[in-house]
Amino acid sequence: MPSKLAAPRGTQDIFPPQSGRWQELEAHVHTLTRSYGYGEIRTPIFESTELFVRGVGETSDIVEKEMYTFDDKGGRSMTLRPEWTAPVVRAALQHGLFTEGPQRLYYLGPIFRYERPQAGRYRQSHQFGIECAGFAQPEADAEVISLAWDLLQAYKIAGVTLKLNSIGDENCRPKYRDALRAHFLPHRDSLSADSQRRLERNPLRVLDSKASEDRELVASAPAFEDFLCPECRAHFDGVKRALDADGVAYEADSHIVRGLDYYTRTVFEFRSDALGAQNTICAGGRYDGLVASLGGPDVPAVGFALGLERFLWAVESAGTNEEARREGVQAIAIGAQALQALLPLVAALRRTSGWPIFIDYGDRKLLAQLKLADRNNARYALILGEQELAEGQIVLRDLVTRTDRPLPFGKDTLEALGEMRE
Ligand code: ATP
Ligand code: MG
Question: Which residue among 59, 88, 342, 417 is least enclosed by CB atoms within 10 Å?
């Protein structure tokens, strides 16, 4: 294939058996969110560019350098969704959801960021996330964190730590910002170019730096905990208390700040030591100012976003991926006459059994068709040859124990198979 027809750099095709793991995770997400009382929201894959500039913040990595932005044929600037929170808030405002009271929403789908592709970092990736809007109380923060915790626990992902921090509010953040500036400014020239720029525009973001030359100065930076105002401190304590009550283990880490500008108070990340440099699986926090900044009422909210690629990568590297279970039936006909006789049974099984039913329409030998059964990971083979057809029988082969059992062929076959299931 000419390489220009290959999938674009930083994107992935997902096909069996991997797509089965995606479906299983997605099904788990739908069930888990339901048990916490969350409903799904779906928004367009592109939105006006202005939504993200205003909603994510001009000094964020996303807006500074990662957006897929284009002019549509009407000359409007559009951007492929780089994150979900701004679109979710936009949709909730547009449809008056916040006037109906608290909202618990979740989303599942692709995001687009122009990044340097590497393991765990793609240009199209997928996020599952939740937004809990309408509660200022710390119990809501703990609820959101607990839901993510439950998902990671259910998949037994090893080496995961939950890092928790508070980045205060408009009362205490300016003081902390000044303290950070005072800490970094004398060493400005030894910082990475990115951090030098951030130091002026948004010094908290320097703490988020991944550049090795920044590491030491970041490690010795003052901690926000020492600058929190009484209200923010009480909130932080409340989150910890509620997490303790939920049985969620966390580590306080004063360097967790999050890249997006709209966070207030609680911020958190789930990291896995199985993932190398791209080790954050899930990240989130509280963003009490966002709804108002997008023109809505004063609605406090808290949420997270979890990267599905990184999540599945962590599952894989933990080796907890079970070997695919054998399931279903390979229907095997030997000869054209047997095939015609077998087709109605195949149709009936597909409609009633709930099993995957496989069949080969080519005129292949028994051995070749049994190979197909293995490739399909079928649990049983139903084999109909000319002799069986003449005798009114069909052979059921258990592909695990490799034993055969003759069954009556015809309308009794379904019944016999049904009994075998129990
Ligand atoms: P990073 O610091 O790794 O760039 P981020 O701060 O940009 O992450 P968020 O915007 O908080 O990440 O997104 C939440 C989660 O979405 C991340 O923790 C990660 O699991 C996933 N994610 C973000 N960007 C990508 C990407 N380009 N490819 C794959 N997953 C991603
Ligand atoms: Mg990023």
Answer: 59
Mutating to test ligand 1, I would choose from 271, 280, 287 the residue with most ligand atoms within 8 A of its C-beta, which is 280
pLDDT tens-digit series, residues 12-69: 999 999 999 999 999 999 999 999 999 999 999 999 999 999 999 888 889 999 999 9
DSSP 368-395: HHHHHHHHTT-SEEEEE-HHHHHHTEEE
Checking phi first, is residue 328 left (phi over 0); if not, alpha (psi -120 to 50) or beta? Answer: left
Q: What is the pTM of this model?
A: 0.91
Tokens representing 165?
């921090």
Q: Among 56, 144, 310, 312, name the best residue to mutate to test ligand 1's pocket (greatest count of ligand atoms within 8 A of Cβ).
A: 310
Ligand 1 atom with minimal separation from the 258 CA: 6
Residue 116 Cα to ligand 2 middle (Å) = 10
Cβ atoms of 225 and 166 closer than 8 Å: yes
- Tell the residue nearest (CA) to atom 25 of ligand 1: 121
* Band of residue 276 on the pLDDT scale cut at 50, 70, 90: confident
Where is 218: in which H helix or E strand? helix 215-219
What's the pLDDT tens digit per position in 333-366?
999 999 999 999 999 999 999 999 999 999 899 9
Token pair for 315: 């599952």
**What is the radius of gyration, based on Cα positions, of the chain?**
28
For each of the domains in the chain, give its residue range(s) and CATH number, in order of start: 18-172+228-317 (3.30.930.10), 329-421 (3.40.50.800)
178, pLDDT greater than 70 = yes
Q: Is the CB of 285 under 6 A from ligand 1?
A: no
* Orientation of helix 308-317 relative to helix 18-35, angle to 10°: 110
